Amino acid sequence: MKDLLMHIHPLRAHIEEVLPLTDQEFDFILSHFTPVSKRKHQYLVQEGELVNKEHWVIKGCLKAYFFDQNGKEYIVQFAMENWWITDYEAFNNQIRASFSVDCIEDCELLAIDYASREKLSSEMHKMERFWAKKTKLAFIASQKRILSLCRNTAKERYEMLLNQYPQLVQRVPKKMLASYLGVSRETLSRL
């Protein structure tokens, strides 16, 4: 059984964490995605550009971020294996991006464009349910992050990040972690 599980496509395994699929259903789903390879420091999304794709991470690590008028970077999201990333407001409303997404490491991704995602959702209600569940989970995580930024000390936020995503903390430079946590690099070093 373990050997069988090792040969399942990683996207299928990801979707099946939420709902079961037949081979034919997964083949249909996969036909809507395009493989994408990006090197470290390459963009997936650039602020100000139209956003037509959502990406699922097979391998690698990315960040979504913007700069304020003083040039200070604010990281709003990281994405590692099995995570989704794009500028969701821009993607869903088919407008220009408010922030950029680029690769912290070399990345292997699967991309789905807006029209394909809409078509897949309308033709296969299982995928509509899958994305609804993933959207709820992302919204909850976003709320928790906002509450943490408002309620918790820098040390508490860092400890929560260490406990929840130990692999991320090992892969991301301290400067980026500091930006994500809303603290200076020096404060993070003291923690």
UniProtKB/TrEMBL annotation:
Ranges for domain Cyclic nucleotide-binding: 37-119
SUPFAM superfamilies assigned: cAMP-binding domain-like
Name of the protein described by the UniProt record: Cyclic nucleotide-binding domain protein
Organism: Microscilla marina ATCC 23134
